[in-house]
Write a structure and sequence with these properties.
By secondary structure, the protein is α+β, with helices and mostly antiparallel strands. The chain is built from 17 helices and 17 strands.
Length: about 450
């Protein structure tokens, strides 16, 4: 390849580097140049370079991330994009690396190439990173044993991650669902609802906290599931749509059985008291008519002390952003309300439920009361809180560090300043950002700093 002046200068600069990798790719991702360090580290031979694609060097599940970085660079040609990649050597070893990609010109001055400057990242450089990795393994194992199925998809619903727990629910292994869409597993009558709610969540227009639909198991059976989506496309750590689902058969069966008739509630008591969900029924004045064993255990209030009283007088429940009367009005109008609720137990512990309130009808179709069905999600909420607290802890740890932390690009231009750097140097952050690091070094110390 005939190198342009811009590429030749950088290639010469990095030719003797024992720390930084440098490579040039064409618009198809084929390698046009690599510096000796990357050539040695990857195990490639110089004569093979023209026949290799850069994607051959990194793990298959990282191709999407790399392609997005390339698209960004070609779209915004004056910008740079940073990504992290796990690269493979010829003998199968993996090394973690961080890269900065940008567009560069060919020998005719036309922006036809993509250049990347990278370096290897050592994991577990400190005790903090070790704790973070152990924390990551903890949550990975927590997800693997979860009763919920968890899948990640792109903006079109194509699945590229599935937790091992989906096999317990649908019978598919994680690998069997990759590359398929979320909607391939929805029963035909429920596909429209699934697509509509998915698109609404993508556009942040979703009013429903969750939906109940039938999913197709590997055996061909239909399974009622409660499905909740969370838009994390803008998250720098996830960048996907996150879908949680769980077997809703017991709750659905109980709800269908209870709706048949108020007179059959006593006959269904055994079923109601053997499900794992909270089930409560009221009459139209919202006085409790049934109170199953699950809510007895959760609240410490037995059925005899609850039945006949208004629900709000038994448990002070938080329906935020709604109140008791607003939720009842929605159920009266639409026939159903879904959302997250919370209340405080006698011991002071706060309990969170994923809750559905729907109308009960007689055999003649007349409204006779309301049915509340809830799933305890307190542990999930606690896990989310622990993650948020962990993030705040490390953020504050960085803020109050006695070390000044400054980051620069490969040219020495400052791109980040920690608060501690401002306290040590006396310079305002805005004074430091965008300036060359050596502007703030005493002239006599510049040669040492450059070395």
């Amino acid at each position: 390849m005939q190198l342009s002046q811009q590429i030749s200068i950088l290639a010469k600069y990095f030719s003797d580097s024992n720390k930084f990798y440098y490579l040039v790719l064409d618009q198809q991702g084929s390698i046009k140049y690599v510096n000796p360090l990357l050539l040695k580290r990857s195990g490639m031979k110089e004569e093979d370079i023209d026949f290799r694609s850069f994607s051959d060097l990194f793990q298959e599940n990282e191709e999407t991330q790399f392609n997005k970085a390339c698209e960004y660079c070609w779209q915004y040609q004056d910008s740079k994009k940073e990504i992290e990649l796990n690269l493979k050597t010829n003998d199968g070893l993996i090394f973690h690396s961080k890269w900065e990609f940008s567009v560069c010109n060919d020998e005719n001055g036309i922006p036809n190439y993509l250049q990347g400057i990278g370096h290897e990242v050592e994991l577990l450089k400190s005790g903090i990173e070790k704790e973070l990795l152990e924390s990551e393994l903890f949550f990975k194992n927590l997800i693997a044993e979860s009763l919920d199925g968890i899948v990640l998809s792109d903006i079109n619903g194509v699945i590229d991650f599935a937790s091992p727990s989906i096999e317990k629910i649908l019978g598919y292994s994680s690998e069997e669902v990759l590359g398929k869409t979320l909607f391939d597993f929805a029963f035909s009558d429920d596909v429209e609802l699934a697509i509509r709610t998915f698109r609404a969540e993508v556009e942040f227009k979703q009013d429903l906290k969750f939906i109940n639909i039938r999913l197709i198991k590997k055996s061909g059976e239909l399974l009622w599931c409660i499905v909740r989506g969370h838009n994390m496309l803008e998250s720098p750590y996830i960048g996907k749509m996150v879908i949680y689902f769980s077997d809703d058969t017991l709750r659905k069966n109980a709800e269908d059985a209870l709706i048949e008739s108020k007179n059959k509630l006593k006959e269904q008591a055994t079923i109601v008291n053997n499900v794992t969900d909270i089930i409560v029924t009221t009459d139209l004045s919202r006085k409790i008519t049934s109170w199953n064993i699950v809510i007895e255990k959760l609240t410490g209030i037995i059925a005899q002390d609850a039945i006949g009283k208004r629900f709000r007088d038994v448990i002070e429940t938080n329906y935020a952003p709604y109140n008791h009367d607003q939720v009842a009005a929605i159920v009266m109008k639409d026939g159903i309300w879904r959302g997250e609720i919370s209340f405080v137990r006698k011991n002071g512990e706060k309990v969170y439920l994923l809750h559905t309130v729907s109308m009960l009808y007689s055999e003649n179709g007349e409204s006779i009361g309301m049915l509340g069905v809830g799933k305890d999600i307190t542990e999930r909420k606690k896990a989310e809180t622990r993650l948020q607290q962990s993030e705040l802890f490390y953020r504050r740890l960085s803020y109050y560090s006695i070390d000044g932390v400054i980051m620069s690009d490969h040219n020495g231009t400052i791109t980040y300043c920690g608060p501690s750097a401002e306290r040590i140097s006396g310079y305002d952050t805005t004074r430091l950002l965008g300036h060359h690091f050596f502007e703030f070094v005493h002239p006599e110390d510049i040669p040492v700093a450059i070395d």
